[in-house]
Design a protein that fits this description.
The protein is of the alpha/beta class. The protein has two domains: 6-82, 2-Layer Sandwich (GMP Synthetase, Chain A, domain 3); 88-340, P-loop containing nucleotide triphosphate hydrolases (Rossmann fold), CATH 3.40.50. It has 14 helices and 15 strands. An eight-stranded mixed beta sheet has the order 10-11-7-12-6-13-14-15, sandwiched between helices. It has a three-stranded mixed beta sheet with strand order 3-4-5, with helices on one face. Strand 4 (40-47), helix 2 (55-69) and strand 5 form a beta-alpha-beta unit. Helix 1 packs across helix 2 (55-69), helix 4 packs across helix 14 and helix 10 crosses helix 11 (277-285). The structure holds adenosine-5'-diphosphate (ADP) and magnesium ion. Magnesium ion (MG) binds at residues 113-114, 137, 140, 142. Magnesium ion binds at residues 113-114, 137, 140, 142.
Length: 341
């Protein structure tokens, strides 16, 4: 075993493999600021997302390798910092400072697509990621109600500034057009409205923009995917077995549009609607099953009052599920961004 030096610590850390990227922490250039104070060691692990699902594993593996390979180590202090990777295609195509776009889709309405979008976005923001939500559901733009805002924040340099609530930047199709008009929009008008949500909105430097798509696989998905490189897509599905055919259409649409499918989330699981739809979809359609959110009567009431469930119920089990899902998604986005380099 070697003695306590920055070199020996670095060497030990080169044996810690990042489980999702399958490379070691030194090769990935994740190790920063190794400091040695007598026998005590401290360093920073630079993560690819603040919502990293692997913090605990990386910390314990790092400690284990250092203790196994370096003699006489005292305390080990591991800090974390992060820099979210960029899906470079977004900036190439649009001049918006958004690093990654996650599209949330469902085969049909009412399965909780908007609820899931909002709560995941809040969890990403709470983990420290700069996050926005774009309500592109032209036929039912209900994100504003769910977060308690009814208009954009204002105008700056001729662009619309998104509303801000619960730590999110928020923009909705509902801010731009009266509901009665939206329903009859098709093709080119829809295309230009979606385009405005990027070109005429002063988005901040976002790590993640979560996009709540309209249900189904119509013009809006097509327009969005043509206009904007989507980093990855999620399908929200019900717990019933019949949900499979709906989800299949959503997945087919992402596949056709060459949007990587991050996975399926089952919503409203429990005694009333049952369980298993999400797992079945993932098995039959060959996509990852990310997890299942239970049916809970407190979800609608909070939503209607502009307070997302994860905000009003920070210690609830369902909040824990949302938080875990958000981290899994952030991890998957990092892997996709690395794969594109
Ligand atoms: N897990 C859940 N438990 C109970 N109610 C839910 C759950 N998820 C969503 N809801 C409620 O179901 C209704 C539809 O959800 P919403 O997110 O608007 O669906 P979508 O966007 O797919 O149309 C809303 O009233 C919402 O509050
Ligand atoms: Mg909705």
């Amino acid at each position: 075993m070697s003695t306590v030096t920055a070199e020996s610590v670095r060497e030990a850390l080169s044996h810690v493999i990042e489980p999702e990227l399958h490379q070691d922490l030194v090769t990935l250039n994740f190790i920063r600021n190794i400091e040695i104070d007598g026998s005590d060691v401290s360093f920073t692990i630079m993560l690819t997302t603040p919502a990293c699902p692997l913090k605990d594993v990386l910390r314990s593996e790092s400690e284990r390798e250092i203790r196994a390979r370096v003699k006489g180590v005292g305390s080990i202090d591991v800090s974390f910092d992060s820099e979210v990777k960029r899906d470079g295609r977004i900036e190439e195509k649009l001049s918006v400072p958004i690093k990654n776009i996650i599209a949330v889709s469902s085969g049909k309405g009412g399965v909780g697509k908007s609820t899931v979008s909002v709560n995941l976005a809040v969890c990403l923001a709470r983990d420290g990621a700069k996050t926005g939500i774009l309500d592109a559901d032209i036929y039912g733009p209900n994100i504003p109600v769910m977060v308690g805002v009814d208009r954009a924040a204002g105008q700056k340099n001729g662009k619309i500034t998104p509303a801000v609530a619960h730590g999110l930047e928020i923009m909705s199709m509902g801010f731009l057009i009266p509901k009665s008009e939206a329903l009859v929009w098709r093709g080119p008008m829809l295309h230009s409205a979606i385009s405005q949500l990027f070109s005429e909105v002063a988005w901040g430097e976002l790590d993640y923009l979560v996009v709540d798509l309209p249900p189904g696989t119509g013009d809006a998905q097509l327009s969005l995917a043509q206009l904007v490189p989507l980093t990855g897509g999620i399908i929200v599905t019900g717990p019933q077995k019949v949900s499979v055919s709906d989800a299949r259409r959503g997945i087919d649409a992402f596949n056709r549009l060459e949007v990587p499918v991050l996975g399926v989330i089952e919503n409203m699981a429990g005694d009333i609607f049952g369980r298993g739809g999400g797992a079945l979809v993932s098995e039959e359609l060959g996509v990852d099953f990310l997890g299942s959110i239970d049916l809970n009567g407190d979800i609608p009431s909070g939503s209607d009052g502009g307070v997302p469930f994860v905000v009003s119920h920070p210690n609830h089990e369902i909040t824990g599920v949302f938080r875990r899902l958000a981290r899994v998604l952030a991890g998957k986005v990092s892997v996709l961004d690395y794969g594109r380099d």
